[in-house]
Amino acid sequence: MNLRVIPTHVHGAVDHVVSPALIAAPSLLRLPSTSPEGLLPRLNGAFGALYSNLTDYELSLKNVIPMKVHLALDAASGAALAVVPLATGAHKRGLRHWLPHALIGSFEIGMALATKAEPPRTRSGRLPRLRRLRP
């Protein structure tokens, strides 16, 4: 049974929404900007936006990083996001200090495990998918 069912163009669209959301989340949740639970989502979002735009899939600016490497980076950043509030004791300060991190971190790990590891290779395979994404 193949668990990799999410197409790379869907993963790319999610990446381009989650990265800015991670950058904005600490401010929206009123987390201390210098604390680990406030700093890590911002770093995670900025790094995710960078490598998402360099990944070899449909919605990137430059196809440099292989999709398998991207998925490994997603899983690692999701694990870090989920674990840091627990490891630093931030979970003792309330739900907003750890629950969003755990949910988004778990979501990133799940997306990394469920996304196809190769984008469509043919021009005819990639262009129709891009056209469907346009309004």
Strand content: under 5%
Q: What is the typical, i.e. mean, pLDDT?
A: 89
Q: Give the distance, in angstroms, between the N- and C-terminal Cα atoms.
A: 34 Å
Main sheet: strands, sense, barrel: none
SSE series: HHHHH
Please give the radius of gyration in angstroms.
Answer: 16 Å
Q: Could you say which structural class the secondary elements and strand pairing correspond to?
A: mainly alpha
Give start-end ranges of low-pLDDT stretches: none
What is the tally of beta strands?
0
**What is the total domain count?**
1
Q: Name the shape in a single word.
A: elongated
Helix content bin? 55-70%
Q: Give the number of helices.
A: 5
Can you describe what's shown?
With 135 residues, the chain is mostly helical. It has one domain (8-133). It has five helices and no strands. It has helices at 8-28, 36-52, 67-87, 99-114, 123-133. The mean pLDDT is 89.
Ordered list of secondary-structure elements with their pairings:
Blueprint: H1 8-28, H2 36-52, H3 67-87, H4 99-114, H5 123-133
Key terms for this structure?
5 helices, about 140 residues, single chain, about 65% helix
Gist?
With 135 residues, the chain is mainly α.
